[in-house]
Amino acid sequence: MLLRPVIALLVAIVVALSLAGCSGEDEPDRQVEVNPTPIDAFVADSVQVSRASFCSRFADDAVEAAIGEVASTRHYGNGERARVTGSVHDVAHEYNCTFVGSSGDVARAWVFVPRVTRSQARALVADVRRREGCRLLDGHSFGSPGTGSLCVSGSRREAAYRGLFVDAWLSCSVTDGGREKLSEKALVKKSGDWCVQAATATSQ
Question: Which of 13, 115, 157, 164 is such that its CA lies 20 to 30 A from the CA of 93?
Answer without folding.
Answer: 157
